């Protein structure tokens, strides 16, 4: 229960506007297993709400009462549902309803009911709601970058109502703030694959490879951009293995740090997908080798040491390699 | 070298049942889940008989609504999560015949949407967690034919991401808890072909951090509950040997309260029944001696699952 009980709260039974309503007390059953300690205010508000619900009274005082119930318990399903019925019946101004939601939602962005209600209002408002919804979710995400409800709402707005124009920039802004923000990387992939404005994964690939490589240079141990990079080439390993930017970034990171697990792991993938290393590449690990499979095998062995917790994964990767040159 | 303080954990869980302030430890509205965590942990440690089955089942039955669904406590709205937990508890006590399976099945079937997804309750929040609850529960009741299973698994498959993981809804970020729900649901439904086992297996084994513990997403802290979510998915996909099991075992044992029993999320934090269950369940998947084997998809002891599906206590086959 959200405790927002005011000192100066006037009991409903003392208000003239409610004189005609007979409150309905809760039926807790004969012997409640868990006696719940309600405050008097909570009990009275709920008793009047039950009465209004029983009468199905869709009036402006009913709307005000739902606001009182929500202030005391914003997770109550029934009250939100009834509030929508009343809003419809009264043809209320839904822009004002958005303000109401914001006043309730403060510090309460994990409550599904609030987001569900917001979606209903946005749906009713249509295209006109786009900028407001993107702004609202941005505020929430700047504060809590992993808020699942906010991401989900934002994706819904984009897909149902539009607003894709600035979305890639939005992702860039979040990643500029925190390049480790995996949720923002996920959103970036969502935009690149789903936005109707930018031509899809194929068309965006070069652009995104550039972006991703820069992010990798900034934080080589960050697993998110390395995965994103592979995602850009999903189902097209051949293009991955022959993309000069990808190859160069991978080799460069290994040269800088021969224990960079993410780079070494990508090198194994590249070699498996047909990348032909130059003679200087093959000496990366300071062991001359005679074939790409040999190099891949060496990299896996090296990974078994530098990433010891996952040694058996790397041993398994090594076992999948085409037969290598026997050690002489 | 730390060991499992089994008896202390048993005493800790028993003390929760007696304490009048149980609700302060397990929020009142999810008491059904609290009971499931505590009782399953007790069974895994071989002490289910210490609990009063009749009293618990009588309370549990009072949480059922006319629609067939269960609430998290007496007087609370029904939800698919608590409905699954109630059925799991009944399975533990071999009391599945105390309820009308068709009634529960029709409640769950009513939560399925046109696109195959499931709502958690009549108010419509959609999440792949609820797909798992529905599929797991109906399977335990042998009523999977009451839903459109193909559509259900197709929806779960639509929540698969480029990293091989799964999110709450299509487009949602991968998260280990969600991955467990999706992989286990697909396993129960016989639709594991939707899972890219090598790609996802690698993502999951990268959850192990230096301390040996597992996190739920990149850049998050390790937490004992992920010992369950990550590990069960790896076991289902037969990739559990890709992580360092010894280091994970040490991490879980480090999270024990060696004085008063119970397991916490991270070393030296306060214990709770949720992390106690997931710690014990994680150790079970790691085949820790003295802990019964748990089924990675149904999240119930293997002998219980075998009793339901094969009518005997001793497992003889790997269903997955
Ligand atoms: Zn946890």
The total strand number of chain B stands at 0
Percentage of β-strand residues of chain B: under 5%
- SSE string of chain A, helix = H, strand = E? HHHHHHHHHHHHHHHHH
* Helix vs. strand class of chain B: mainly alpha
Strand content of chain A: under 5%
Unreliable segments of 5+ consecutive residues of chain B: 20-26, 314-320
For the residues shown, what is the average pLDDT of chain B? 92
Counting DSSP H or I runs of 4 or more residues, the number of helices of chain B is 14
Give the structure's gist in a few sentences.
With about 325 residues, chain A is mainly α.
What does this structure look like?
The complex is a heterodimer of chains A (328) and B (320). Chain A has helices at 40-55, 60-72, 77-90, 94-105, 112-125, 130-143, 148-161, 167-177, 182-194, 200-218, 223-232, 237-241, 244-256, 261-272, 279-282, 292-306, 311-319. Chain A is elongated, with a radius of gyration of 29 Å. Chain A has 328 residues and is mainly alpha-helical. Among the domains of chain A are: 1-92, no CATH class; 252-321, no CATH class. Chain B is mainly α and 320 residues long. Chain B is 48% helix and 0% strand. Chain B has 14 helices and no strands. Chain B has helices at 6-18, 22-25, 31-44, 53-62, 80-92, 101-109, 128-140, 149-158, 176-188, 197-205, 225-236, 245-254, 273-285, 302-310. In chain B, helix 3 packs parallel to helix 13, helix 5 (80-92) packs parallel to helix 7 and helix 7 packs parallel to helix 9. Chain B is globular, with a radius of gyration of 18 Å. The A-B interface holds A 28-29, 32-34, 36, 77, 81, 112-113, 116, 146, 148, 151-152, 155, 180, 182-183, 186, 189-190, 194, 222-224, 227-228, 230-231, 234, 308-313, 316 and B 23, 28, 31, 59, 62, 73-75, 77, 121-125, 161-163, 167-169, 171-174, 201-203, 205-206, 208, 212, 217-219, 241-244, 247. Zinc ion (ZN) binds at residues 223, 225, 265, 275 of chain B. Chain A: Belongs to the protein prenyltransferase subunit alpha family.
